[in-house]
Every structure is written in structure tokens, then in C-alpha cells.
Amino acid sequence: MKKTKQKMAIAGAALVAAAATGTALAANGSSDASASASVSSSGSQQSRQKTPLPIKADGPNVFPHSLDFDARSKTFFAGSLSQGKVFAVSPDGKVRTFIDDPELVSAQAVHVDRERGRVLVSNVDYGTADRSRKDAPFRVAGVGSYDLATGKQQWCTDLTAITLDGKQHLISDVTVAPDGTVYAVDELTPTVYRIDTEGRASVFLRSDLLQGDLDIPDFLDDVGMSAVEWVRGNQLIIAMADGSLVRVPVQHPEKAQPVKLAAPLASPAAGMRLLKDGSITAVSSGLLSGKPARIQHVEPGDGWKEATVTVTDTVKDPVTNDVTAGPRGTAYALSGGLADLLAGKPNDGFTLTPVKTG
Length: 358
Description:
Elements: H1 6-28, H2 30-37, E1 55-57, E2 67-70, E3 75-79, E4 85-89, E5 95-100, E6 106-113, E7 118-124, E8 142-147, E9 153-158, H3 160-163, E10 171-176, E11 182-186, E12 191-195, E13 201-206, E14 214-216, E15 220-223, E16 225-231, E17 235-240, E18 245-249, E19 257-258, E20 260-261, E21 269-274, E22 280-284, E23 293-301, E24 306-315, E25 322-325, E26 331-335, H4 338-342, E27 350-354
Parallel strand pairs: 20-24
Antiparallel strand pairs: 1-27, 2-3, 3-4, 4-5, 6-7, 7-8, 8-9, 10-11, 11-12, 12-13, 14-15, 16-17, 17-18, 18-19, 21-22, 22-23, 23-24, 25-26, 26-27
Helix pairs in contact: 1-2
């Protein structure tokens, strides 16, 4: 893996962000651009309902990269890359601190596990957070489990203690199997971790198939796994930043194979969400191209050995990171202000934009 140029990271990322988001972002911030310029509308499940409006969350300097929705409490849960916190967001945009764990440096992936009454959070360090080691970014890698009712920590597992490889790490996403096992993917090494319900972790898979090759100029090189979902057939579907997908049979991870796609996801691929019918909706950021972010529907065939990808919507804010369910069958894409964070700019909130997912 090539060395991350940390001294150039913020300046380089700022240039990338400026190119991606244009004058409006430089003047107003990515959240405002997303709120005012969304071209998305309600999805197929929303067709009989009034088109929902974007949700402008009022969390100042909360920079979420991921979020998940709890239907029972009608609450979105969003992490913050600038803080070791997870925030509860109501549909009217009100934000309150839900998790504030000293062991978290930055909260990236957020996954609500309603069946076990917990919120799973990946612990990362871009070198830009309040608790960061500014001189040693990407040396934190972990997953925490928190009570869904109280936000109290159940366990917080340090995955660098498993590898002891001295490499840079970034736990980009997590998913949960029906038995409660957590699978976490590392964006900077070709490693998938398995964590049991008590927080005991092990390496599930290392494979050259999962080695990244996408470079973000002057920020990160060899970016690999960006998202993961457990799907029927006891398999993991892993999205690579370059737009490819990999299928991993849980019982035989050594048999991991690329998913045959007629066309890949747009690159860089960011977040994914499993739909009730077993298909996946995915968002690809326009961070590098400056084009609108794409919402895509991934329809599997032959037990996920192959799949078709179709674009179902776009979000004008290029730096759109994730997609989640919402109230009453809606779906929302997250614009969390990543470009502002990397450019060292403040943020007065973030935006959830309603999108079509199929």
C-alpha cells in the first residue's frame, strides 16, 4: 500500500471537494447545496404518498458518513467523523447526542440491529477529529456495540489488536448476520473481520480479491472495500470503491468471487442498503468527477453470482455518502458535509434527500 500523504491530505481534499462541488459548495457548504438542488423524488413504494421533502438536520459540525433508521422509534442514527459520537435525528431535523463514548475517535459506519436492541458503530480516525492523533491518521480500527434504548456501551473492540500489522486501517462498514455475528470491512487492507455477540473478534477473510486500487489524489491510495451487506444464501456482498462487487459465502469464505456485472456501480461506490426483496440499493459519490451522486438498484441473479445495475435517481450534491430507509416506506440519501470536513470548514448541519430506490 502506498503511503498516505497526510501533510497534503487536507489541501488536496479541499481541491478535490472544490472541483466536485463547485462555487455553491464553496460558498454555502455541501449540506446547503444538497438541500436546495436535489432532483430526487419519492420511490416506487412512495408513489401513493405525497413526495417527502429533504430533511435539513440542525447538527452544527456533525459530519456523518453513514446513518441508519429505526422504524420503531422513527429515528435516524448518524455518526460523526469530527467527533466520537452518534446522534439521534428526528424526521423534523432535530439532532441530539445519543452516544458519546471516549473510546470512539470518529464514528463512521452506523447500523441499527433492532432484533438485538443495539447500534453498531465503526471506529476510525481520518486525523481530523477532536480525538484524533493528528500525526498518525488511520491507526484506529474498531467496532462498538451500544444499547439501542440508552446508548450505553456494551463492548468496543479494537481490531488493530487482531492484525498487529502496523498498517493503516479504515473500517468503512459493518453488517449483521441473522445469528448476530457482525462482519466489518477494512477500506485500506483486504481484510474482513468477524465479531461475535460478545465482541470477540477474529479475521474472517484476507484476500487479494479485496485489495483496493482506487486513488483519491493527495489523500488516500489503494482504497478498497466501501460497503457490505449480508444477503440471503448466507453470503456477504461487498462493494469495492472502484464499483465492482464481491460475493463471499460465509461458510466458505475462501470461495469468494467477483459478482458478474453487466456494468459496474459508478465509482467511487459508497453506501449500500439491503431491500426487502433481497436486492440492494447503492449510492456512488461524485467526489472525484464533480457529477451528481448516483442512486443505483442492484438486482441479483443466480444466487448473487451475477447482477444488473440500474440508476434509479441522482442527488445534485456530488459528495453523497449513504442511503437509508425512512418513515412510511421512504428512502433518503445522506449528504454529510465530507468535503467541508476535509477542507477544514465548519458545518451547520447535514441533509437527507428523498430518493427513488427502484
